[in-house]
């Protein structure tokens, strides 16, 4: 079982809250809400996604890079996977 699956209820809760925040942006745009309000909603989504990303990165580090039971090859593979994701994330 993947470590993400061990925390799936918590992660799904976060994702669902983010989906609700994105839906609020859509409603704000459709309703012609003030620019500042829509920007505030977008900033909240960005923060929520960043928090989700932080949690997923930490889980990956603990399970695929730092876990005592890993071989050096497994650690290197886990680090390579994370480096690839972070390159995409920080573009």
UniProtKB/TrEMBL annotation:
Domain of life: Bacteria
Secretion signal span: none
Pfam families (UniProt xref): Trns_repr_metal
GO molecular function, one term: metal ion binding
Gene Ontology biological process terms in this record: negative regulation of DNA-templated transcription
InterPro entries: Metal_Tscrpt_repr, Metal_Tscrpt_repr_sf
Protein family membership: Belongs to the FrmR/RcnR family.
Protein name (Swiss-Prot/TrEMBL): Transcriptional regulator
């Amino acid at each position: 079982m993947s470590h993400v699956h061990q925390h799936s209820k918590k992660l799904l809760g976060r994702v669902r809250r983010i989906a609700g925040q994105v839906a609020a942006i859509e409603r704000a745009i459709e309703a012609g809400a003030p620019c500042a309000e829509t920007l505030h909603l977008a900033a909240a989504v960005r923060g929520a996604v960043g928090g989700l990303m932080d949690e997923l990165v930490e889980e990956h580090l603990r399970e695929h890079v730092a876990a005592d039971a890993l071989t050096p090859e497994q650690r290197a593979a886990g680090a390579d996977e994370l480096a690839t994701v972070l390159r995409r994330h920080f573009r």
